[in-house]
Amino acid sequence: MRSHKTKPPLKSFSQPFLSVSSHSVIAMQASNAFKAAFLQKILEGLQLGLQTSENMSLAERKEVVKVSSDVAMAFARGGANWSRAIITNLSKEGKTKSLVRTMLGKDVERFNKPSHTSKKVTTKKILKRSYRIKRTVRKSFASGLTRSLVKKRTQVLKRIVPGGDLLSDELSFLGETLDYIVSLKAQVHLMQGIANAVDALNRR
């Protein structure tokens, strides 16, 4: 018979979620279509936002890079609740409004349209993993974890995930959270690749 080793629980504020979802998130990867759309859109944003970089401060250039990266990630993902929230928030801010609208063009209106808060994420793999997480979280109550503590930690997590406070359904929220984490992971990986490419060109 095979022996099963028990893993020690994670000691973090999101233990009920991260302890059961970390392996699932690692296994999930952004699609090639996402990566292609992200790279195309961020290059457009950097080209538009840094046209007058000689007259911009370092803080302003960093802001252009950050906004371009966030808009590119939201655009590449499409109609997720969190992606809509990112575009809506950025398109309202005075400093970033112009760049966001220039990058997205007519698509900005599509992202700013209100979405149904009860709508579940449509990705089948995410829904399946979210359902398994939901069952595991329920089992954790038997281990002495109170409902009030889970609710408190969920509220904290909802403040981290863009648009998370609009989702009242637990399954939809978990699906959105996983989707957001996968997209963030791809964003970091692609941005690192861009930084490495620029560094290599500067060394020539």
TrEMBL record:
Keyword Acetylation: no
CDD domains for the chain: bHLH_AtIBH1_like (cd11444)
Keywords: Nucleus, Transcription, Transcription regulation
SUPFAM superfamilies in alphabetical order: HLH, helix-loop-helix DNA-binding domain (SSF47459)
Domain IBH1-like N-terminal: 32-93
GO biological process: regulation of DNA-templated transcription
UniProt-recorded Gene Ontology molecular function terms: protein dimerization activity; transcription cis-regulatory region binding
Localization per record: Nucleus
Coarse class of the protein's main subcellular location: nucleus
Pfam families reported for this sequence: IBH1_N
GO cellular component labels: nucleus
PANTHER family cross-referenced by the UniProt entry: TRANSCRIPTION FACTOR IBH1-LIKE 1
Recorded family membership: Belongs to the bHLH protein family.
Protein name: IBH1-like N-terminal domain-containing protein
Source species of the chain: Acorus calamus (Sweet flag)
